[in-house]
Amino acid sequence: MTPHHAELRRRRPVLLLVVVVLALAGCSADTGRRIEQGAAEVRTDQAFYTLPDPVPAGPPGSIVRTEPLPSTMEGSVAWRVLYHTTDQQGTDRVASAVVVAPAGPAPAGGRSVIGWGHPTTGAVARCAPSNGLDPFDLIEGLSQLLHAGYAVAAADYPGLGVEGQSSYLIGVTEAHSVIDAVRAARNLPDAGAGAEVLLWGHSQGGHAALFAGQEVSRYAPELSLRGVAVAAPATELATLLDDHIADASGVTIGSYSYAAYQAVYADQHPGMSLESILTPAGVAATPAMAQLCLFGQYLSLRKIADPLIGKYVAHDPATTEPWATLLRQNTPGAERIGVPVFVAQGESDALVKPAATTQYVSRVCTAGEHVTYKQYPGANHGSIARAAMDDVLPFLAGALQGTPPGSTC
User: What is the mean pLDDT of residues 27-37?
Assistant: First the structure.
């Protein structure tokens, strides 16, 4: 049984339960329609993400395959898309995304496009947001963004959706996939996507959005980046990993990131190994944890991670080479973005701690960025993106109009 088949079997009882509950609650006709069509979409997952052999060549952002997603919310049109992108070494990769746009004709010049970066879901193909029961569920603020007239391009990141090497917290690879998802949206005529781009991301997606902001002018000069908004972004990577060295979150995030870095960078750094930073138990457990999704397999993750709390890391990766250099290279802020940036941080966030985000903001303010930084009392890591939407929306509109809020630097 393939991983996708296993996931389909796991999803079907959940889907039936959702249908029953919503039926008993008297769900709307549109909700019932979305559930029914979402179930049909799940059944096509395996075929959609299996690449043709050979994969047709194409430049970054060109489309390999697309299919409509009728389960999108009323008043919008949506597609699941496979498209070309490149990784940090310039190697061609095929990635997946969801593109959503308001129904109807686009304005002259096309719709401004939101490049969305999703929070952590896992690090292997079946963990992609686009192949979930609701492929729109993790696009935070989607209904408000569509109502405001934006098209939204939501990348999965390489290694999610389409089988391949993980890109977890690999800044340039994540960034290129976000930018190329925007390019792919522009290659869908019915999306009506224009050249003006805004980036919006949460957690891992904040990391991807900030790196995309750094990369877009040289990687995709045809696009006009106008602003970047992030919520609880993964910025100070060494700090983030150290903050959680003694809890299950740290073990889980560590398993995703250390496995990805070992796979991506070992060829460039002879002798690089997990043994140089992890305990023997950590080395043994990391491959299994890195195969599990944060959603749907959380209990399985905890079963492995909990016994490793305080027993996972043997040597600090922030001071052990080449890990220290790689963490610095993949920490955003080394290059200026050059457009207004909005940073939202929950004061009750126990995962991305306020001190780490404040550290990042201070660093890029010193470098001359225009940053609006707002902290939200009571908001935690899961709620911060929703809590910030009432500020994100006017920030995005102001960035487009050249009237962003004043910098708090």
Answer: 48
Q: What residues form DSSP beta bridges with 231?
A: 202, 344
* Phi and psi at residue 152, to the nearest 5°: -125, 125
Q: Which residues have C-beta within 8 Å of that of residue 279, sequence separation ≥ 6?
A: 308, 311, 312, 313, 314
C-alpha–C-alpha distance, residues 186 and 199, integer Å = 15
DSSP-assigned letter for residue 188: -
For domain 44-236+331-401, the CATH superfamily is Alpha/Beta hydrolase fold, catalytic domain (3.40.50.1820)
pLDDT digits (tens, 9 = 90+) for 376-405: 999 999 999 999 999 999 999 999 999 999
The average confidence (pLDDT) of the chain is 90
Where exactly are the structural domains of the chain? 44-236+331-401, 237-329
Six token digits for residue 108:
């002259």
Structure-token pair, residue 225: 């980046």
Per-residue pLDDT averaged across 220-249, rounded?
Answer: 89
Q: What is the DSSP string of 236-256?
A: -HHHHHHHTTTSHHHHHHHHH
245 vs 254: CA distance, rounded Å? 9
Calculate ∠ Cα 52-58-60, nearest 5°: 115
| Residue appearing with tokens 């498209």 | 83
